Amino acid sequence: MLDKSHRHIACENCKSRDNSLFASFCGSDVNILNSTKSCAFYKKSQPLFVENSVPRGVYCINEGKVKIFGRGEEGKEQIIHLAAAGEIVGFRAMFSGETYKVSATTLEESNICFIAKNDFLDLVDSNPNLRNGIMKELSIELAERATFITNMAQKSVRERLASSLVILNDIYSGEMINLSREDLANFVGTATETLIRLLKDFKEEELIRTHARRIEILNKEGLLKVAGA
Q: Which residues of 80-114 are buried (b: 16+ CB within 10 A; e: fewer)?
């Protein structure tokens, strides 16, 4: 039986690479990428990095999901992004020269590849496609953050929950949404008790169906209408 903690995925065989910033790599570029990274198996709720720590490199998700979050003054989490297979986590801090402003923790069992800071920066310097992809990613993120801040400030909790469920439905891509109620509340930006009450309302309105902690979307158009989209 393979030791999960030492599971190695060759870049040329990685199904998630087509959805990543490394999608344009081929030939020698793939060989270089493969030789510079290491792979590790992460259990659920295992941290990749924590807020205020010094960046050591970047993390490319082969399988699994990771939550990116900050903490308020009272220590409450605010989840700002859920990263899925193919996404690279932690590269933003490579360019700022500062410590991480957020934390990253696995939401489920995950296989994640790591590339050390200097190796990643060398790849960026030598590969224009990667450099352009990062610039595009940062531009998209800026627009998404502006939308996120506007939604938090102007939309009701009910509207934010509906919008969040649509986003999560896309992230889980065909699977049922599998988040703890606390994590979902932290993603929406509300109290867990409020979230549970609203989920009950959505069930009664036949927008969703729950299976223990899993959430099945029954009426995406209805959720979009509630969200004001």
A: bbbbbbbbbbbbbbbeeeeebebbbbbbeebbbbb
- What is the full DSSP assignment across 74-106? TS-EEEEEEE-TT-EES-HHHHH-S--SSEEEE
Structural domain boundaries in the chain? 4-143, 155-227
What topology does CATH give the domain 4-143? Jelly Rolls (2.60.120)
Tally of CB atoms within 10 A around 147: 11
CATH of domain 155-227: 1.10.10.10
At residue 202, the pLDDT reads: 98
Q: Which pTM does this prediction carry?
A: 0.88
pLDDT above 80: residue 103: yes
